[in-house]
Specification:
mainly alpha; single chain
């Protein structure tokens, strides 16, 4: 407790002094800004010297200024119209160039994916659909051909063949 505590009345007194000094500084700053503004306006915009027949001449001068502003507005409008027309032509030409160029198809990458993972990617993880294509295939049983020819007399077979040979030879 090396520092002594201030009483509340002392705090309020110091606070009011600081606020009064700040208010005085703000008033002084506002006055300086107003004076600086008046000085700048006097330098930048000197008062007009009106001749003896000032009202009529002032009206004519205002009409001339109005005509000049109308002329400059027309020129500005014409220039803007030319610019927008040129921009539209540029956009049309760009579009035509892109139409003439063939569309380049990107090279597709080979992706190995099972049917289950494809369905999961398409339908999301909510749907549990399994598609085992191999289980849906029909099973075909191979029938083994058995030789039903009995082992008989081989001499008989030879004689039958000889008889056939004779038929062809006689004709």
């Amino acid at each position: 407790m090396s520092e002594k505590k201030m009483t509340s009345s002392r705090k309020h007194h110091l606070k009011s002094l600081v606020l009064s000094v700040a208010a005085g500084l703000l008033e002084q700053e506002v006055k300086e800004i107003a004076e600086e503004k008046e000085r700048f306006m006097a330098e930048a915009c000197p008062p007009m010297d009106l001749p003896s027949g000032g009202q009529q001449e002032l009206m004519e001068y205002c009409k001339k200024l109005g005509q000049l502003s109308e002329k400059s507005d027309e020129e500005r409008y014409d220039a803007e119209a030319k610019v927008t027309k040129a921009q539209k032509e540029i956009e049309d030409l760009k579009f035509k160039v892109t139409e003439l160029q063939p569309v380049k198809k990107p090279a597709l990458k080979k992706v190995r994916m099972s049917a289950d993972s494809m369905l999961q990617a398409l339908l999301g993880s909510k749907h549990k659909v399994t598609m085992d294509l191999r289980s849906n295939l029909k099973q075909v049983k191979k029938e083994v051909k058995e030789d039903t020819t009995e082992a008989g007399d081989w001499r008989k077979n030879i004689e039958d063949k000889a008889d056939r040979k004779k038929m062809f030879e006689t004709s």
